[in-house]
C-alpha cells in the first residue's frame, strides 16, 4: 500500500492513495483519479501553518497517525475539484453504504478513525498530483464604533446569537428588583384566559406571538388571567406573599454590554449599543434596587391583570380621599395638582356644606372677571368611564337636581377648568399610561413615555354647556359627532404633533412639552403611586399587574391637572397613531410583568428585540421608605390611618 508523503523541501502534500482504502483495485482507482486530475486543474500549493510548524521536529521520513492530523491541516478544495470528485466517486461508490458526501463538505477530512496511517516522505511530487490550497486566515477588524440595536437586529446572524443574551438581561433586570428568580425551563406550556371586550383580539395576538403560551376558555387552570374588570374570585385564589424583601448591596449596576459583535461589512465588526433597549430607564432609575432572589417554578405561578384594591385610584371618590391624605401628610396643597373637588352623597352630607362655601366664593367673581362662568362638572363617584354620567353645570340648582334623586350614591363635584389650553380653538386632554406590578409581594410603578392627545370636534365655548362634542374628549362620545376625524385622524394627536403646534402658536413661550410639561405629569403620577402603595395590594397577592390610564388637562398657563385614573383604559385602535402606540405599550407591559415570571423555554425568544419605553418611577423599598422617613414621627399615625380605612372597606 502506498503512503501519503510530505516533502519538506517543496512543501507540498500528495493525495495519491491506493484503491484499497475505498475497496477498489488499483486499475479502477487510477482511472478515476486521472479524470479528477484532468477536470480540476489545480496547481500544487503550500501546506498550512500547522504542518509548517512541525518541520523542525520531523525527520526526513516520518509516519504519523491520521488521528493526529486535524481537518484544518488540509486546506479546502475549490468548487471545480469538489464537483469533479463527486461525479467520479458517485460512479464508483453507487453500491457502497459509505458513499462520501463530498458536496456537503468544505474540506478534506483526514481525522476519521478508520483512516490508514500516513507516511510523510521527503520525495517531491508531480504538479499533476491532486493537492489543495492552504487556508487563508482572515483577521477580524473590530472598531471602537458601535451600532444601534435596531441596525444590528437586521443582521440575522447577530440577532440569532444575541437575542437569548438580551432576553436574559431583561429578566435579570426585572426579577432582581422583584426578588424572584424563576427556574429556566426546557419545555413550557403556559395557559392564558382572555376575557371578552376592550380589544381582546389584541391581547390574543400578543400571546399568540409567544408559542410557549396557549389560550384556554376557563380561568381555573390559567397561569395568566386577563379580564376587563377585576375578578375577585381569581384574586382570592391567588396565594399571599409572606416573605420580607431584603436589599442586596453587592449588585452590579455597570452598563450592560452585549458580548456579540455585529458584522457590518466584510471583516468589519462593531459593538452593539444596547442602551436603545431602554433598560437604563429601569436600571438607571433612582427608584431601582436589587433584592435577594427567591427561586420559583414558573409553571406553577399565576397572575391576574388587576390589582386587588385598585379602587383607591380608579374610583373617583377614593382617588380624592387617597390623594387628600397623602398631600396632607407631606404638607402639600392637593389643589395645585387636582382641580378643587368634593365628594358629596347628598344635601345632608357635611362635605356638601364645604362645597356650598366654595361655590358661593367663586360665584361672587361673576361679573368681576371677564367671561368667568363658575362652571362645575358633576361625575358619578363610583366606577364609570368613557364619559358616562358626566354633566357640566352653571348654577347651584342644576347641581342640586342631580344630587337629590340619589341620596345613596356619591358624586364628584369638580371645578371646571374654564380656561383650558386649546388646539385650533378646540378642547383636548392627554392620555398617559402607568404600569403597576405586585410581583412576589413587591410593588413597583412604571411611567410610559409615550401617550397621545384626545381632541373634541367642536370649537370651545362656555356659552353652550350641554353640547358634549364641545366639553368631553372621550372617544366614546366624539365618534358620534359629524365632525369626528375632520381635523385629526381619529381626533388623536401625538406628542410630536402637539410640540409642532406649540412651536408654531407659542414661539415666544419656548415651551418644550417633553421637558416642561411631561415631567410634571410624571411627578403627579408618582405621587398617586406613593399615596396608594400601602393599600392597592394589601395582601401581597402572588402575582398581579395592571395598566392604568391617566387623564390630564393643560390650562392656558401650561399647568397639567390630574382629572381621573382609569382601571380599564380603552385599547381600541381607533386611529393610525393608536394602532402603533397601544400594541407597543401593552407588549412592553407584558415584557415587564408576564415574561419575567413566565420565561420562554431555552432556545426560544420573541422575534423582535424588546424596546422598553416604561420608566421605573416607584419601588416600595426605595420610594416607599423615603416617604415614611419624610413623615418622621407621623409615619405610624399615617400607617394606622391607612390600615383603618382598609378595615372599613
From TrEMBL:
Record-linked SUPFAM superfamilies: Glutathione synthetase ATP-binding domain-like
Comp. bias intervals (Polar residues): 61-71
InterPro entries named among the record's database cross-references: TTL/TTLL_fam
Domain of life: Eukaryota
Stored Pfam families: TTL
Secretion signal span: none
Residue ranges, annotated region (Disordered): 41-71
Name of the protein in question: Tubulin--tyrosine ligase-like protein 9
Amino acid at each position: 500500500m502506498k503512503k501519503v508523503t510530505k516533502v519538506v523541501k517543496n512543501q507540498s502534500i500528495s493525495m495519491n492513495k491506493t484503491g484499497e482504502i475505498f475497496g477498489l483495485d488499483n486499475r479502477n482507482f487510477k482511472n478515476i483519479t486521472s479524470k479528477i486530475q484532468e477536470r480540476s486543474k489545480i496547481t500544487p500549493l503550500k501546506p498550512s501553518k500547522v504542518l509548517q510548524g512541525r518541520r523542525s521536529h520531523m525527520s526526513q521520513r516520518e509516519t504519523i497517525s491520521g488521528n493526529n492530523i486535524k481537518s484544518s491541516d488540509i486546506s479546502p478544495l475549490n468548487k471545480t475539484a469538489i464537483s469533479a470528485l463527486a461525479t467520479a466517486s458517485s460512479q464508483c461508490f453507487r453500491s457502497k453504504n459509505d458513499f462520501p458526501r463530498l458536496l456537503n463538505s468544505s474540506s478534506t477530512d483526514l481525522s476519521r478513525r478508520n483512516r490508514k496511517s500516513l507516511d510523510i516522505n521527503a520525495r517531491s511530487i508531480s504538479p499533476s498530483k491532486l493537492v489543495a490550497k492552504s487556508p487563508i486566515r482572515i483577521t477580524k477588524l473590530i472598531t471602537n464604533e458601535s451600532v444601534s440595536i435596531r441596525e444590528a437586529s437586521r443582521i440575522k446572524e447577530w440577532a440569532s446569537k444575541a437575542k437569548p443574551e438580551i432576553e436574559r438581561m431583561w429578566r435579570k433586570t426585572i426579577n432582581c428588583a422583584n426578588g424572584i428568580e424563576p427556574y429556566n425551563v426546557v419545555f413550557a406550556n403556559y395557559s392564558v384566559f382572555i376575557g371578552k371586550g376592550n380589544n381582546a383580539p389584541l391581547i390574543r395576538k400578543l400571546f399568540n406571538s409567544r408559542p410557549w403560551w396557549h389560550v384556554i376558555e376557563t380561568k381555573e387552570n390559567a397561569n395568566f388571567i386577563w379580564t376587563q374588570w377585576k375578578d375577585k374570585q381569581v384574586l382570592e385564589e391567588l396565594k399571599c406573599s409572606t416573605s420580607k424583601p431584603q436589599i442586596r448591596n453587592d449588585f452590579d449596576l455597570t452598563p450592560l454590554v452585549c458580548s456579540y459583535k455585529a458584522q457590518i461589512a466584510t471583516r468589519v465588526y462593531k459593538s452593539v449599543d444596547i442602551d436603545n433597549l431602554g433598560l437604563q430607564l429601569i436600571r438607571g432609575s433612582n427608584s431601582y434596587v436589587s433584592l435577594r432572589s427567591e427561586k420559583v417554578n414558573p409553571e406553577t405561578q399565576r397572575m391576574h391583570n388587576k390589582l386587588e384594591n385598585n379602587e383607591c385610584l380608579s374610583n373617583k371618590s377614593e382617588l380624592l380621599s387617597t390623594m387628600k391624605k397623602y398631600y396632607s401628610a407631606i404638607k402639600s396643597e392637593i389643589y395645585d395638582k387636582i382641580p378643587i373637588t368634593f365628594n358629596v352623597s347628598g344635601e345632608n352630607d357635611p362635605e356638601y356644606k364645604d362645597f356650598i362655601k366654595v361655590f358661593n366664593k367663586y360665584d361672587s367673581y361673576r361679573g368681576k372677571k371677564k367671561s368667568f362662568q363658575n362652571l362645575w362638572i358633576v361625575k358619578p363617584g363610583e366606577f364609570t368611564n368613557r364619559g358616562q354620567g358626566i354633566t357640566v353645570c352653571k348654577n347651584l340648582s342644576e347641581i342640586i337636581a342631580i344630587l337629590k334623586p340619589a341620596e345613596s350614591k356619591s358624586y364628584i363635584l369638580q371645578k371646571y377648568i374654564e380656561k383650558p389650553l386649546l388646539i385650533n380653538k378646540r378642547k383636548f386632554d392627554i392620555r398617559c399610561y402607568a404600569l403597576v406590578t405586585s410581583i412576589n409581594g413587591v410593588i413597583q410603578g412604571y411611567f410610559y413615555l409615550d401617550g397621545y392627545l384626545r381632541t373634541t370636534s367642536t370649537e370651545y365655548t362656555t356659552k353652550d354647556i350641554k353640547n358634549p362634542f364641545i366639553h368631553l374628549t372621550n372617544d366614546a362620545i366624539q365618534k358620534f359627532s359629524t365632525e369626528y376625524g375632520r381635523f385629526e385622524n381619529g381626533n388623536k394627536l401625538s406628542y410630536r404633533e402637539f410640540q409642532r403646534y406649540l412651536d408654531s402658536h407659542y414661539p415666544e413661550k419656548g415651551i418644550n412639552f417633553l421637558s416642561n410639561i411631561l415631567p410634571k405629569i410624571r411627578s403627579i403620577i408618582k405621587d398617586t403611586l406613593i399615596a396608594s402603595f400601602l393599600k392597592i395590594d394589601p395582601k401581597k397577592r402572588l402575582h398581579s399587574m395592571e395598566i392604568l390610564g391617566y387623564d390630564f388637562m393643560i390650562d392656558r398657563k401650561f399647568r397639567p391637572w390630574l382629572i381621573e385614573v382609569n382601571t380599564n383604559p380603552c385599547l381600541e385602535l381607533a386611529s393610525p397613531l393608536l394602532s402603533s402606540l397601544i400594541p407597543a405599550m401593552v407588549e412592553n407591559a407584558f415584557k415587564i410583568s408576564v415574561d419575567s415570571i413566565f420565561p420562554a423555554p431555552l432556545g426560544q425568544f420573541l422575534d423582535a428585540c424588546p424596546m422598553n419605553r416604561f420608566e421605573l418611577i416607584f419601588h416600595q423599598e426605595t420610594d416607599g421608605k423615603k416617604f415614611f422617613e419624610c413623615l418622621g414621627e407621623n409615619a405610624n399615625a399615617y400607617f394606622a390611618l391607612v390600615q383603618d380605612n382598609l378595615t372599613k372597606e
